[in-house]
Design goal:
- This protein is mainly alpha-helical and 150 residues long.
- The protein contains 8 helices and no strands.
- The longest helix has 20 residues, at 26-45.
- It starts with a helix and ends with a helix.
Length: 150
């Protein structure tokens, strides 16, 4: 992501702001939210390692519109070695799928293979792994695809 696309994202988000301008105290809250979103996108598009789940959480909780670059990053991080990152990426992608964003089912299936398989998930119900979130995402994609084909 370039500095220009961060600025463009910032401007797009600013244009969506409604009511409660800075004269009423809403500006500081909005600026804080905007800063958090830009920081989250930078963290995801950088060469970051470790637990990136907080960045996905910020994007999801602030209802940030999906962009192809972040979708691809999230799909790639479904296979992260960090289970929190993978689960949070799956949750963000699932949220965007609810907004009619097309999610690559093949990449989700590769993540299921990476973490185990859907049969393994049945025996791991009590353990917290990203596999459950990823399988739920896969099931949603398939249901959406089947509904669109009807």
């Amino acid at each position: 992501m370039t500095e220009h696309s961060d600025s463009a994202s910032s401007e797009k988000l600013k244009s969506k702001k409604t009511g409660g301008g800075s004269a009423f105290g809403g500006g500081a809250s909005f600026q804080s939210s905007l800063t958090a979103i830009v920081a989250a996108r930078r963290r995801l598009t950088g060469k970051s390692t470790g637990d990136l789940s907080a960045a996905f959480h910020v994007l999801r909780s602030r209802n940030v519109e999906p962009c192809p670059e972040v979708i691809e990053i999230a799909l790639g991080l479904l296979c992260s070695e960090c289970k929190n990152t993978s689960a949070s990426a799956a949750e963000l992608l699932s949220c965007w799928l609810n907004q009619a964003v097309v999610i690559d089912a093949d990449k989700v299936d590769k993540a299921i293979e990476h973490w185990g398989c859907s049969q393994t998930a049945k025996s791991l119900r009590r353990l917290h792994t990203p596999l459950h979130s990823i399988i739920e995402l896969s099931d949603k994609i398939r249901a959406t695809t089947m509904a669109a084909e009807k």
